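Notes to self, Coenzyme A biosynthesis bifunctional protein CoaBC:
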Amino acid sequence: LAVAAAARDLAGLQLVVSAGGTREQIDPVRFVGNASSGLMGQAIARAAVLRGAGVDLIAANVDLPSPAGVRTIPVGSTLELQAAVTAAGKAADVVVMAAAPADFRPAQAQSGKIKKSDPNQRLELSLVQNPDILAGLVADRTDRSQVLVGFAAETADTPEQLVDLGRAKLARKGCDLLVLNAVGRGRVFGQADSEIRLLRTPSEDAPAPDALAGSKDTLAHHILDEVLQIRSGR
Ligand code: CTP
Ligand code: CA
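result:
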């Protein structure tokens, strides 16, 4: 890995990496969101800069110092993330969607704080679906050499089930690479170490990819190695 970093094998490439979790405001003080820390996306951004790439990091509510050498663009909601990723992604050689976008947003955000009244009051939130940013990038891709990378965090009981879920998601998204990891029971979110599988084909005939374990920095380099391999096959 030190050799790969020294080789600056991503020199001349422009990457867009999204990180963190989006938040959908219910009212000025409350939101619907998730626990994504942004660590994985940041690790990829850092690794890519080390290897010579230009990197835009679209950071959704990431509470971490911005990595050196990276242009960081902060965003809040999924629609904001979509606008920033789509704009920066136009000129990018690689887009990595490591962020966890909220799939739904309140049908209407309240401009004032929601107040509670009597103890029997119920509150029903109506949510509408957000656009799928990655699927949009795939559909609108004009540069055939552009590499699009998705992530999938799935709850699964067995590795086989995990890979099946990953294959189905890869088929649905149509991206070039899906970084698959298991979540739940304290795994992944907010932790420095992780375990991933790199899926390049939804085909059930292909062997299931091995699990790669290690620090998010190490895994970031594995992901970038795979991206380079995909590019060299174009
Ligand atoms: N993603 C996206 N736009 C969304 C939701 C997800 O671009 N509105 C991206 C994520 O950044 C990730 C990939 O799609 O790279 C898979 O996200 P995931 O939440 O696992 O998939 P969904 O299609 O939202 O399916 P579900 O949450 O129902 O499993
Ligand atoms: Ca989702």
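- The longest strand covers residues 147-154.
- The mean pLDDT is 93.
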